[in-house]
């Protein structure tokens, strides 16, 4: 795999009352990735707190543009998705994002902590430069892993995502990070890591 700054972050909404079947189907799909010798790492989280409670978020990080053009066996991947995943859930969005190291503390991929605070920030058009400048100025004061990404495609723009992996809820509640002024909308969710629904993670 060729490393780079790009990430894909996607969301699936399990059909109502079908969570067990969805999780079983997704785990079978990850087995397809193992058998296909996929070199990418896939994270899986369940939304624990937020309007999308029980939805599933999956993501892969640290890719170059060329690497993103070369996923493992895309036609076979799609066929297995149809067989095991789509019948149990609805794909609810997928975003292509770029990691912003000057604004962040950590690498371009989150540590596989038990909890993840996911903040989605929407700005007014033209506010990107001031927003990034404010975060760059705050970067030296960051205390824990804080990863900022700029959305390139997949939703309304300009949009930014902040990932803050933490070992537990206490760590999140004791370290509530502020956001710069001038934000049109911010949504904060808490996610729970699902190791059995992840692929290639080392903890």
List keywords for this structure.
single chain, 203 residues, alpha+beta, Alpha-Beta Plaits, 2 domains, eight-stranded antiparallel beta barrel, globular
Structure, briefly:
The protein has 203 residues and is of the alpha+beta class. 24% of the residues lie in helices and 36% in strands.
Mean pLDDT: 95
User: Helix segment count?
Assistant: 5
Architecture (CATH level 2) name of the largest domain: 2-Layer Sandwich
State the order of secondary-structure elements, H for helix, E for strand: EHEEHHEEHEEHE
| pLDDT < 50 stretches | none
- Helicity, as a percent range: 10-25%
| CATH domain fold name of the largest domain | Alpha-Beta Plaits
What is the domain tally? Answer: 2
- Class per helix and strand makeup: alpha+beta
The strand line-up of the biggest sheet is 1-3-2-8-5-7-6-4
Structural Rg:
17 Å
Number of extended strands: 8
Give the amount of beta strand, in percent.
Answer: 35-45%
Biggest sheet, in brief?
A: 8 strands, antiparallel, barrel
CATH class of the largest domain: Alpha Beta
For this structure, the quaternary state is single chain
Principal-axes shape call: globular
End-to-end Cα distance, whole Å, is 20 Å
């Amino acid at each position: 795999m060729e490393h780079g700054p790009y990430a894909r972050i996607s969301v699936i909404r399990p059909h109502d009352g079908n969570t067990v079947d969805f999780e079983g189907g997704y785990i079978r799909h990850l087995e397809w990735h193992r058998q296909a010798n996929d070199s990418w790492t896939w994270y899986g989280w369940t939304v624990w707190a937020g309007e999308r409670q029980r939805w599933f978020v999956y993501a892969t990080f640290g890719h170059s543009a060329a690497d993103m053009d070369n996923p493992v066996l895309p036609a076979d991947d799609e066929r297995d998705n149809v067989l095991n995943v789509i019948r149990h859930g609805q794909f609810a969005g997928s975003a292509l994002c770029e990691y912003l190291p000057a604004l962040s503390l950590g690498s371009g991929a989150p540590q596989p902590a038990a909890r993840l605070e996911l903040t989605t920030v929407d700005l007014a058009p033209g506010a990107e430069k001031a927003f990034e400048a404010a975060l760059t100025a705050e970067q030296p004061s960051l205390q824990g892993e804080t990863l900022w990404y700029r959305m390139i495609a997949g939703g309304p723009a300009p949009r930014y995502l902040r990932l803050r992996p933490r070992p537990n809820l206490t760590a999140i509640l004791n370290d509530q990070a502020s956001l710069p002024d001038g934000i049109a909308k911010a949504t904060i969710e808490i996610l729970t890591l699902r190791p059995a629904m992840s692929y290639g993670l080392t903890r």
